[in-house]
Amino acid sequence: MKVHYIHQLPVKIELFKSIQESLSKKVDLTTTLNTNNFKYIAGVDIAYWLDEGIEWGICSIIIIDSVTLKVIEKAFSSGKVTVPYIPGYLAFRELPLIIETVKKLTIAPDLYMFDGNGYLHPLRMGIATHASFFVHKPTIGIAKSYFKVNDAYFEIPKNEVGAFENITIGNEVLGRALRSHKDVRPIFISCGNFIDLDTATEFTLSLINKDSRLPIPVRIADLETKRIRKLLIAKTE
């Protein structure tokens, strides 16, 4: 797949903040495309491990058909991780592997769902938002746990499927705590880019089945990442 390089990778640490501040001004939280045309949905996940003091990472992207819910393509990339973990700037650490994996895809996704945050971020630039400028497609962030952003607050949603509570700072909505299953912890959903929060919520719920509180593409990508990581680790032992 073609990737639009909006900046070089990797990036010098001193440029992290200015790059994200600049990109945040270009985020579009509206849906201009007909979601009925969101046929091919990509799930993106990354995992890490240490080997003799060297950190490695792997990115898995799976694509499902939103009608049949069947996996129609898988791709992964692995390599040394050269960018340190800095809270708030995780995207710069994950983007190199994500972009390399996107380039391997032969089917063009209509929508990407990331295991992580999007607009729910101090600079409104979580991985789902930042990556959107490279893939030029609508994106959604799906997080399994809450990443507190400044003074953002929310209430726990009612214990019923589809219940949600907005996560806000002042009058700005950054994302939602969404109950995808009854009696199960909520997930945290935020727009990445080129999509509005109501549409992102509706589409996420449409891709959740009885097997997991996560939407199918994200869940399968997570499982695939763990599977391949285990194989790669075994090769070094």
TrEMBL record:
Keywords: Cytoplasm, DNA damage, DNA repair, Endonuclease, Hydrolase, Magnesium, Metal-binding, Nuclease
GO MF terms, alphabetically ordered: endonuclease activity
Subcellular location: Cytoplasm
InterPro entries xrefs: Endonuclease-V
EC number: 3.1.21.7
Function: DNA repair enzyme involved in the repair of deaminated bases. Selectively cleaves double-stranded DNA at the second phosphodiester bond 3' to a deoxyinosine leaving behind the intact lesion on the nicked DNA.
Protein name: Endonuclease V
Species of origin: Sporosarcina oncorhynchi
